[in-house]
């Protein structure tokens, strides 16, 4: 009996739905639209943006076999698809690949139905009934994005604010959920929150209000969009440094890896933004200063270098994906030993190394780095990562380097 999996892009109006059909012999037939048809989430993308998509399947399509094996093989056979990697150990497992050069993140949601209609209503309780936790988390992104667009008073102004905020976050090193900073949905809710409170303000005024508001926000008071319902704050067993509530559920917050170190880094960048934008009405105000890249080599004297390698490029992608999904554990371990760690989200490559590799440099406080046994940290982190990694294990090497050794 034929069935369908619909890939739902996080878009506002026409959804791009690519249908992946499997017939009675359990073979897929794939029809994928061209990149020119892609609508990026809030229309705030640039040439470096990736696409967050969602694959929805019926109750008998398992993530272990049908998604990560059958669908992966079908996608790998497509000429448009390259660099496909399975990130199975993440809190929200997904496939990551490139479609005609555009990066795609594709998690999977398994619904308790026999077949998936072409126009799935992600707000319909019928489709949300009795689904597992990972599927619920996968669906949350689509639900939140659609709800945000319904709640903002002016979609175009909201999009403009979000573009600016996202650029600022990337330049200042506070964008990247896996490294304990903001993800796209966090910035979308914060931007929508400001737009809701000031529906008639100009773009420049909203940008100023954004930094003024969150520079002095009384965290951990949650940020909650107004949607006509007074949702209560529901405590969780996880420390929420910056709780930001999803606008589609009274009990769910944006998934966050923010820890103490990244919390204070974000707060300091909010304050810096406020101090700069409060003078934005002056004729000599220079916007470039606000978006200056964070000066890691000038800010820190020493860094922990995280060197990841594998025997080939495909294995490296899977290995790096798994390790990055565990980065929060490494940040917390370094915090315990040193009190602070600033993970630079930029991924580098060592061109002199013989194997395919990825390298990260995280800023460390200068006073206590001589006391750290980085070899012991490496062994512990590698052990915890290997416990969840199901592919060929790559190499991981931690070392302490000086600022002048950065690329």
Automatic annotation (TrEMBL):
SUPFAM superfamilies registered for this protein in UniProt: Nucleotidyltransferase, PAP/Archaeal CCA-adding enzyme, C-terminal domain, PAP/OAS1 substrate-binding domain
Main subcellular location: nucleus
InterPro entries per the UniProt record, alphabetical: NT_sf (IPR043519), NuclTrfase_I-like_C (IPR011068), PolA_pol_cen_dom (IPR007012), PolA_pol_NTPase (IPR048840)
Subcellular location: Nucleus
Membrane spanning stretches: 174-194, 201-219
Entry EC number(s): 2.7.7.19
Residue span, Poly(A) polymerase central domain: 158-292
Keyword Transferase part of the UniProt annotation: yes
Record flagged with keyword Nuclease: no
UniProt GO BP: mRNA processing; RNA 3'-end processing
Cellular-component GO terms for this entry: nucleus
Recorded GO MF terms: ATP binding; metal ion binding; poly(A) RNA polymerase activity; RNA binding
PANTHER family: POLY A POLYMERASE, POLY(A) POLYMERASE
Record's protein name: polynucleotide adenylyltransferase
Species name: Solanum tuberosum
């Amino acid at each position: 009996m034929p069935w369908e999996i619909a890939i739902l892009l996080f878009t506002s109006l026409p959804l791009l739905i690519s249908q992946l059909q499997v017939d009675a012999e359990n073979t897929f037939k794939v029809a994928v639209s061209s990149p020119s048809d892609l609508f990026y989430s809030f229309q705030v993308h640039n040439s470096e943006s990736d696409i967050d998509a969602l694959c929805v399947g019926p109750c008998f399509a398992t993530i272990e076999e049908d998604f990560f094996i059958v669908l992966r093989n079908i996608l790998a056979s497509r000429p448009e698809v390259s660099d496909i990697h399975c990130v199975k150990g993440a809190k929200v497992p997904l496939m990551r690949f490139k479609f005609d050069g555009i990066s795609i993140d594709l998690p999977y949601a398994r619904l308790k139905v026999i077949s998936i209609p072409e126009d799935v209503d992600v707000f319909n309780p019928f489709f949300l009934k009795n689904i597992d936790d990972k599927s619920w988390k996968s669906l949350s992104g689509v639900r939140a994005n659609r709800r945000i667009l319904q709640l903002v008073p002016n979609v175009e102004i909201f999009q403009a604010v979000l573009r600016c905020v996202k650029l600022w976050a990337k330049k200042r090193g506070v964008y990247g959920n896996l490294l304990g900073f903001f993800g796209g949905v966090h910035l979308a809710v914060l931007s929508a929150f400001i737009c809701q409170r000031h529906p008639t303000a100009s773009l420049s005024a909203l940008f100023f209000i954004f930094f003024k508001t969150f520079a002095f926000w009384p965290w951990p008071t949650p940020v909650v969009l107004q949607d006509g319902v007074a949702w209560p704050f529901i405590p969780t067993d996880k420390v929420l440094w910056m709780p930001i509530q999803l606008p589609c559920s009274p009990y769910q917050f944006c998934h966050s890896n923010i820890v103490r170190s990244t919390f204070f880094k974000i707060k300091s960048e909010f304050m810096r933004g406020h101090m700069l934008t409060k003078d934005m009405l002056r004729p000599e105000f220079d916007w470039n200063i606000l978006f200056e890249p964070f000066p890691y080599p000038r800010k820190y004297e020493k860094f922990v270098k995280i060197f990841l390698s594998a025997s080939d490029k495909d294995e490296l992608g899977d290995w790096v994906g798994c390790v990055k999904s565990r980065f929060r554990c490494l940040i917390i371990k370094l915090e315990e030993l040193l009190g602070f760690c600033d993970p630079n989200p930029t991924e580098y490559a060592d061109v002199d190394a013989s194997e395919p590799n990825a390298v990260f440099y995280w800023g460390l406080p200068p006073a206590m780095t001589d006391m750290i046994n980085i070899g012991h940290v490496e062994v512990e982190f590698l052990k915890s990562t290997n416990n969840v990694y199901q592919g060929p294990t790559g190499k991981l090497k931690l070392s302490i380097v000086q600022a002048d050794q950065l690329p």
